[in-house]
Write a structure and sequence with these properties.
The structure holds 2 protein chains of 2 kinds. Chain A is built from 12 helices and no strands. Chain A is an all-alpha fold. By secondary structure, chain B is mainly alpha-helical. Chain B has one domain. In chain B, 78% of the residues lie in helices and 4% in strands. A two-stranded antiparallel sheet of chain B has the order 1-2. The chains are: A mainly alpha, B mainly alpha. Chain B: Pfam families: AzlD.
């Protein structure tokens, strides 16, 4: 996808980074306001909502944890489900690390900002200088919008009757928006359907929140063709 | 939502990021591990959509939330801006509750 437009000029052209980074920031801003509202309504507080966004800083995981707590799930299932969702950030780290060399302190700091948006923006750039610039510009945009949005949502959140205005549906609506771009491949579509089926099939029988954790098992279908090839007794 | 949940989640999420970025770094995950981790979000997000729309505690039920979900799916499919998708989905469920 990248490296298709190689321009051999001396100075590095940084055009086309700030605009998309701000556009991503605005989308994230809306998620963040929703998150703030839902978090305080799930028994969180403004400081807890802010701690989540400042420290956890990975949107789907934060929504997932609050969603499970809001439904009456256990703390363990909320945390495990959220961390399973956050495991992809480890892969993103491997993908962006070569473009962000530096001291240990620098790399540990950069790791905190390694999420969907920064990884996507970094990998599509066509030169090392642009990749590095895109990572940090996007990180600043997303971190700013995410935390300001969370603060706004958390401050106004308690004044809403979430049921009355249908705000509880902000959870599934946000998840639909998050999952849509992931369903590009057949395997991802099967994983999505499988996850949905596991959740509905197990909900009556296992502790609240556990179906979310259990649905991750479906991701093992990634191994199906590989396993067939590698069956050595 | 206890402080324990907030802090354990913060630490866990950070360690996952550092594990990939700093610990694995220039090396690679085994491709099978990478393939499995890459599919987890699709499975979990779809499970979360089901939980938040069609369950109440241990019960399965279809109610006003389903209307909001349909609106959200159509909105995302038609590439409606995200803020509008969330507003329309919530409004659809709120209105359905008000009139039913």
């Amino acid at each position: 996808m990248d490296a298709q437009h190689e321009h051999a000029h001396e100075g590095v052209n940084y055009d086309g980074i700030v605009g998309p980074a701000l556009a991503l920031g605005f989308a994230v801003f809306i998620f963040a306001i929703s998150f703030g509202v839902l978090c305080v309504n799930a028994g969180g507080s403004v400081p807890k909502a802010m701690a989540m966004s400042l420290l956890v800083f990975t949107g789907a995981s934060q929504f997932s944890a609050v969603s499970v707590i809001a439904a009456g799930g256990t703390a363990v299932s909320a945390v495990v489900g959220a961390l399973l969702l956050g495991s992809r950030n480890a892969i993103y780290g491997v993908a962006v690390a070569p473009w962000l060399p530096g001291s240990l302190k620098y790399r540990v700091a950069a790791a905190q900002f390694t999420i969907d948006e920064t990884t996507g923006m970094t990998l599509v750039q066509n030169s090392p200088a642009r990749k590095k610039r895109a990572f940090w510009v996007t990180a600043a945009s997303i971190y700013g919008f995410w935390n300001v949005g969370t603060l706004i949502g958390a401050l106004v959140g308690n004044s809403f009757d979430t049921q009355k205005y249908g705000l509880d549906v902000a959870f599934p609506a946000a998840f639909v928006a998050m999952v849509a771009p992931l369903l590009a491949t057949r395997k991802a579509q099967l994983a999505g359907i499988g996850g949905a089926v596991v959740c509905l099939a197990t909900t009556p029988f296992v502790p609240i929140g556990a179906p979310i954790v259990m649905s991750a098992v479906v991701a093992l279908i990634a191994l199906v063709p590989t396993q067939r090839k590698m069956q050595n007794p | 939502m206890s402080w324990t949940v907030v802090l354990v989640l913060s630490l866990g999420a950070f360690l996952l990021k550092v594990f990939g970025f700093v610990v694995i770094g220039d090396r690679k995950f085994p491709p099978q591990v990478e393939a499995v981790i890459a599919l987890i979000p699709a499975a979990l997000l779809c499970a979360l959509i089901m939980k938040d729309t069609f369950t109440a505690g241990h019960d399965l039920q279809i109610d006003a939330r389903a209307v909001g979900l349909v609106v959200a799916v159509v909105g995302v499919w038609r590439k409606v801006p995200i803020w509008l998708v969330i507003v329309l989905a919530c409004a659809a469920t709120g209105i359905t509750r008000a009139i039913s």
